[in-house]
Amino acid sequence: MTSTISQLYDLEEIDVEDELELELARHFTQYRTAIQGKTEIELHNYLQEKASQSKRDYSEIASALLYGILTDPENARTHFQCLSLVNRDHFSAVLSKLHPIAISIKFQSLRAQTKDQMLWFLNELTGLNVQNVDSIYLCLLRQIRGGDLSQTNTTFCYQMLKLLHSHKNWLEMYPRLIATAVFTYMRMITEHRSSGQFESLQQREIKFVIELLRSKAGRDLIRLLQDLSSIPEFSDLWNDLLNEPQSLAASFKGINSLLQTSTPREFLRSRLTPEMEFKLLFILQNLRTNQFQRNLGWFLQRFLSQSEAFNVDVIRFIVAGWYPSNQILQSDIVPRYIVIGSMLRGIKNPVIAANVRLAIIYDWLFFKPTDNIMFIEPAMLLMERSAERYPYITMVFMEFLKYSVDEYFPPMRSYMEKSVATGMRVMIDKGVLRGLMPLYSCASIDDTTRANIQALFSEFTVAGNKNSDGNNTSLPKLPSTVALATPSPTANTDTPPQAQAQAQPTVTKPVDGEDGEIVDHHPIEDDDVDRYLYGEADGEESNGQEMDAETENRSESGNMDGERENTPASAITNATYVSEIQSETMDLDTEEEKDDTITPAETGDEGDATAVTASGTTSATGIESNQSYWLFGDSFTRFKQATTAILESTDQLQDDDMLLQMKITKKTLKEILSVYLRMAIPGTTLASSIGPPICDMIIQFFLQHQPSVTNDMDSDNVIDDARTDAFDILMSTLWDTEDGRDKMVDLIGSIAHHCKKSPHVVGMRWWSHVAGRAVDGTRDWIPSIVTSYKSFVSHAYPDEPIELSLTRDLQLLAEQNHTSFQTIIPLIYQYMPGYTVGNSELLQVLLALVLPDQLGQLVTLVRSGILRIYGDTIDTAFLVSTFRLDAYETGSAWQLLVAELQGQQERIENFLNMNDTIALLQSQTLDSITPQLLSLFSAAYPTPSLLEAILQVIPNSSNVTIRDKIHLVMTAFIDWKQQHKSSPALEKSMQLILNMIESQNVNDEITRQLAQQISILQQ
């Protein structure tokens, strides 16, 4: 809970303080104290001396000045001048602190002043042409929320537009930033057309986009331009695009090549803020088919309630911006097509409905055999699985697909017909559906839909055809727990794709080897972006990855998590060792080959090599200078090469070469740990070398990682498992080592201590690993792991108490993987009561994530005395704060409290007689917790002390609504009387309540009925 007032964020009292802000504020306070009373010359000397002492001192002074710039506008210019004075690294230390703020899911909670100062600072850095400042722009563009027409969002949208326009010449050097800005503001133009109050902003956006657009985006550029075709400036662009493509760029081949080019995933992703993406991916990666509706409802209410048009961007991201892994496809996690179908129910506008349908089937119109099948899977499954229960959905989408093929762009009609048929062939071959005949012959399908199927897929509707599956008439259905509302009749099925092109350019038919799949996993360089923007992808052909025989016949999507791509040369830094992994041999006598394949970053004197990690830390110190370094052979070299390849190739972990590099990393790390455990090498020494890349990998793949290590896996299994990473090797070695456990704890703690950017990611992964092992089997190992964790904290966070460290680790775990948090939290409460009981901050995280089934398990454990949540001293301030939460979370908090108090007469009386409790119950509306309170009262005996406390719940003040309190007290009295717990004190209290009702003239119907029941029981 917040104990100090945040200068960066608008936080509630119950919000968790931001760790980065605490760090920056601490440095700023120390800086102000140090410079107090100094003259300008003395200040200059102090800054130079401080920044020159060490990297740590330089980082602290840079952090302090950054915080001053963001929170002290009056002196921001002075702080910036001081920062420029001490700058030693082209502002990279400052950018590394600014980046987490810009990409944070809490960005919308930033104070307006903080945003203004951030943009001012960004303007100054851009004017100095600081390297990598474009990454901050990319983050901030994602924070422009689609579907949000609030003053705050439109102001920020305008500020970013003004900033980009003022640095137009600088912007031209960053094609990726240009494309993202164009993509973002084309969508905002569409939204700002809905209200005249945004006309001025819209005109600025149009001017900005038109100036840049004479070039850049993938296939989705055409889709976005359709929405804007009625605006005169964009009509002119359409004319050039269709009739004079070379006027846009000399290498641009026209609309045909653009439509045949997949849009990079990062552009689709850019239209969702990090918070939106985080919450949407939680649904798609963690929730079962029967659990997702509540979370999806919250998502739609929070982010799409103001603008139906934003559904298009969200659905486009689901279809082509993110793909589920094989693990998800083979589980009962809700499929993408069900989420999309559920979203359709809220769309009433027919134009938006047509745009949504186009977003779903768009990639199918231009599908090539080398394209990723995940582009088209949701559309087909939505039509197939809806046929029996919701045939209207199948009819609408099949008719729209046929209409789009015929009319979307007539010059490419033949090409689109072949693409749609190719997509169907690939889906049948790979087992997305068993055949088309079950759908074609379904009784609920009307003749028009059947005719459209015949027109589009005639080769698949002939009985006996190898692709028709004519003997199988069973049609897969939607899960019984899913209910998709039939689309609104107002969403006219005849609405065409908007603003179809009227010109008739010659159709360019694809040839073998042309316009192959563009691999979204690879980081997009400037040259690659230009190829995307101009529709050129020559030479980027991908090889289709063959499905595993076991999963080919699955009724779900099968093994389709992406095609195998050509291995980039930069990813293979040790060809000899790669072949060793593939052949499982250990022949290491090829030093000459290794020397030839070392990357440029590794050349030079091996002992002096310095590798800069993604977080800006340096990892080439420590063990390299230790006299025991020779004992590790070439393991360190290979470890560094593999981790460098991984960290320099973002977003490619699903790719075969990245999986191979991760396997090399894990295998070499195991070899390093084997030597470390046998020799007298300090953990801090080894951690300084292996810690930074391990931390950087944890951070880089923070959201993607899922716990997969189980109790029956040893370190060799962990190495072979594609879902694990280097940290899993660390934890598995800890798990399997009895004598060396203390050394492993020392090492892991030291690695966390070296992870300056976010040390708690290591503690988070500690508990994530434990959660994976806690799913099955016995748990007699937990006490020893808890003991090891306490030792780990002393190494990792020496300045933090264990309670705070545990809370921070678990908060991060809850953010990264809700399922792991829910698995581990009962065990944490059971085996670490000294740090969890009464921990309101941890309880708040639990309430935000607890599901009904887990709540029932927790109540059982608390009621039986196995767990304690609140402890002997109940925090009434926290109970007050629960009334500001959602009704479900409020009820959960009180249900756990009741479970802990039930059966303990003395504790119940003490709690209800506390002045703070009385004040709480008097001041709050109790309807949401009435069931919990009645359960608490029912389990107690109505002693005079308890009755007196309960009567005090009803306030004397006439300014407070008392009906809910009177109803609660009367119901409790009736319950006790019916349980034959009558006593003179109860009889007296019953009469008192009747007199109170009469004197205060409370005469609502429920009160009269309860009073009548009490009167009957008194007879």
Strand content: under 5%
Average of pLDDT: 77
The structure class reads mainly alpha
Shape: globular
Count of DSSP E strands? Answer: 0
- Overall radius of gyration: 32 Å
Helicity, as a percent range: 55-70%
Low-confidence stretches: 485-621
**SS summary, helix count:** 51
Largest sheet: none
End-to-end Cα distance: 52 Å
Task: Give a brief rundown of this model.
The protein has 1019 residues and is an all-alpha fold. It is 58% helix and 0% strand.
Notes on the structure:
The chain is mainly alpha-helical. 58% of the residues lie in helices and 0% in strands. It contains 51 helices and no strands. The longest helix is centred in the middle third of the chain and has 23 residues, at 656-678. Mean pLDDT is 77; it is low at 485-621.
Task: Indicate the topology.
Elements: H1 19-35, H2 40-53, H3 55-71, H4 76-86, H5 92-103, H6 112-127, H7 134-142, H8 151-166, H9 168-171, H10 175-192, H11 199-213, H12 220-227, H13 232-243, H14 255-259, H15 265-269, H16 274-286, H17 292-303, H18 310-321, H19 326-329, H20 336-344, H21 350-361, H22 377-386, H23 391-407, H24 413-429, H25 437-440, H26 447-456, H27 526-533, H28 575-583, H29 591-597, H30 635-647, H31 656-678, H32 683-700, H33 715-720, H34 726-736, H35 741-754, H36 760-774, H37 782-796, H38 802-816, H39 818-831, H40 833-836, H41 840-849, H42 852-863, H43 876-882, H44 887-901, H45 905-913, H46 915-923, H47 930-938, H48 944-951, H49 963-978, H50 984-999, H51 1005-1018
Helix pairs in contact: 1-3, 2-3, 3-4, 3-5, 5-7, 6-8, 7-10, 10-11, 10-12, 16-17, 18-21, 20-22, 21-23, 22-23, 23-26, 30-31, 30-32, 31-34, 32-35, 34-35, 35-36, 35-37, 36-38, 36-39, 38-39, 38-41, 42-44, 44-47, 45-48, 47-49, 48-50, 49-50, 49-51, 50-51
